[in-house]
């Protein structure tokens, strides 16, 4: 794998985690599969417990909520491994983009990008510290408040997993292996989409700045720079298509499970809930809501910024230029008629309108379920 100095700086602990877990190592990814083996073999007992293990609806709701969070984290890990080459290619694109910005004429753009990197690094650190606090609360609450409960409830026919010493072994595996592994991979996957999108916003704004500067140039220089803008625009479009391919289906699964999880936690809140379980559920929901909100907000900004390209291209003094210049402008404007748009499975655009629709849908489902409970 080629050196990714800038990418490592931009993505911080998110990509370092993938490298440490061998998610990005084409020759040693079997190590990652071994690490995921234990979470994977817990899935059948989790579903067995959901199907057989409850007389109390409140406990069933909470166990379903925790199971979905952990299973989604495992699925994200598998997606990274299955699409390893595509992720590596996209990281390589970002790295080469940064190398191109080292040209003396790109001093301002490079300075802006470094400022963005500093803000992203601060966000990543805050996200990591918050995740660690959530993990500690999530993993060790059962043994502190209700010894005998597992982090994620399991059930196997003819086997009592709550008798010592089996209980202690299963609990430690969940607290020290299942929860950290699935949670950090869940969050790092979300963060990678957010950071890629932020970089896309930067690239789009950089193109806008290039188009604004063309009006002040002489004909030959303006045409040469406009041709570079056409190539640059194509690169941005390809970047957006790659993001859509890598993240679209998982985004659809995320919003579907998130909608269900929020709905179930609201139902749980209206029942005879247990305070420690409710507290864990609420902090996890708040954490996930923040991740989804930020991702959808930045994706919305990317779409809006890509639509502005056509207006800035039109505002260049193309009427006073030659035919070749006008043809290049036309290419940019035509391409900009279809804005960059990340979607959830190709069904819904990832923007603030969709985010609000998700929140409304969660409350609507809650109202329906509440009326039947």
TrEMBL record:
GO terms for cellular component: plasma membrane. Keywords: Cell membrane, Membrane, Olfaction, Receptor, Sensory transduction, Transducer, Transmembrane, Transmembrane helix. It is found in: Cell membrane. One of its GO terms (biological process) is signal transduction. InterPro entries: 7tm6_olfct_rcpt. It is a multi-pass membrane protein. It comes from the Eukaryota. GO terms for molecular function: odorant binding; olfactory receptor activity. Pfam families: 7tm_6. The chain crosses the membrane at residues 30-52, 64-81, 189-207, 246-271, 277-299. Belongs to the insect chemoreceptor superfamily. Heteromeric odorant receptor channel (TC 1.A.69) family. This is Odorant receptor. The lineage of its organism: Eukaryota, Metazoa, Ecdysozoa, Arthropoda, Hexapoda.
């Amino acid at each position: 794998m080629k050196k990714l100095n800038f990418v490592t700086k931009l993505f911080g602990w998110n990509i370092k985690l993938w490298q440490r877990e061998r998610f990005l190592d084409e020759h040693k990814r079997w190590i990652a599969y071994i690490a995921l083996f234990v979470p994977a073999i817990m899935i059948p007992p989790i579903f067995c417990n959901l199907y057989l293990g409850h007389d109390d609806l409140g406990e069933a709701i909470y166990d379903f909520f925790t199971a979905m969070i952990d299973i989604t984290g495992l699925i994200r890990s598998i997606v990274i491994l299955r699409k390893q080459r595509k992720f590596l290619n996209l990281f390589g694109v970002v790295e080469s983009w940064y190398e191109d910005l080292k040209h003396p004429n790109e001093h301002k753009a490079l300075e802006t990008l470094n400022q963005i990197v500093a803000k992203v690094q601060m966000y990543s650190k805050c996200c990591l510290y918050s995740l660690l606090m959530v993990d500690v609360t999530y993993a060790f609450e059962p043994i502190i408040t209700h010894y005998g409960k597992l982090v994620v409830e399991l059930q196997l026919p003819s086997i009592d997993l709550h008798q010592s010493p089996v209980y202690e072994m299963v609990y430690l595996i969940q607290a020290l292996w299942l929860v950290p592994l699935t949670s950090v991979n869940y969050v790092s996957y979300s963060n990678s989409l957010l950071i890629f999108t932020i970089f896309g916003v930067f690239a789009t704004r950089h193109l806008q700045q290039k188009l604004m500067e063309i009006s002040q140039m002489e004909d030959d220089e303006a045409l040469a720079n406009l041709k570079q803008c056409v190539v640059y625009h194509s690169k941005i479009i390809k970047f957006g298509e790659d993001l859509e391919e890598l993240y679209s289906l998982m985004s659809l699964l995320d919003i579907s499970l998130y909608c269900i999880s929020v709905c179930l936690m609201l139902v749980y809140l209206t029942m005879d809930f247990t305070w420690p379980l409710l507290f864990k559920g609420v902090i996890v929901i708040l954490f996930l809501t923040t991740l989804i909100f930020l991702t959808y907000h930045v994706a919305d900004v990317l779409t809006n910024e890509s639509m502005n390209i056509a207006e800035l291209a039109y505002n260049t003094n193309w009427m006073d230029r030659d035919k070749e210049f006008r043809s290049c402008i036309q290419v940019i404007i035509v391409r900009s008629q279809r804005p960059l748009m990340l979607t959830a499975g190709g069904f819904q655009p990832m923007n603030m309108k969709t985010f609000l629709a998700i929140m409304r849908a969660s409350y609507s489902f809650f109202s329906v379920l509440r009326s039947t409970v």
